[in-house]
Amino acid sequence: MSTTTKSLQTHQQTSRLDFLFEAGHTMLSQCPSLSRYYMNEFQNTLTEYELTAHKPIARLSCKSCGQINVPGLNHRIEIIHQQSKKQNKTKKTIQSKNTIKSTCLTCGNTSLYHGSNKKKMPKLNMQQEPVIATVKPITTTPATTSVGTPTAEPLKKKKNKGKKNNLKALLNKQQNSGNSSSNGTGGLGDFLSSL
Where is this region: Disordered (predicted)? Predict the structure, then answer.
C-alpha cells in the first residue's frame, strides 16, 4: 500500500466518523431513533476500523443502543461511595473510592465507571476548633501605638459617636420645641451641612 492510498483511507474513515457523530447529535432533538441509529453506526465503525474513542466521547452514548446520554431525560447517573481502610505501619488511612453507575433509560443497560480515589486527611489540632469564633465586645479604651498616640481607628469611631450624639440632641431639641421653629434654624439641615 502506498502512502497516498493509506492517507486517503484514513481521510475517508475520519470523515465518515465525523459525519456519523455530528448527525447523531444534530438529530437528537428532532428524531431520537435516527440519532440512536447514527450513534450506533458510529460505534460499529470504530470497531470495524479497530479504533478506540477517547473516554469522554465513548461515554457520551449508550454502548448497547447508541442513545446519546442526556442525564435526567434519557439517562440516570448515580455515584456510589465505597470506603476502604488501609493500615500502614505508622498510621491508619481511610480512602474513599467513588464508582459512577450509568443507566440508559431507553434500553436499561447499566455501565460502571471508575471514579476518583480520595484520601481523607486527619484533622489538625487547629482545624478541630471552630474557624469562626464568637465576636468579643469592643472595649472603649483607645488603643495606643508604641509611641503612645492613639491609632486612627478609635479616633474615627469616637468622631462618629460624637456626630451621632449631636444628631440625637438636635432631634430632641426639635421635638421639645415642637414645630414652632418652622424657619429651620438650628435643625437637621444645619447638622447635615456641618458634615
Answer: 141-195
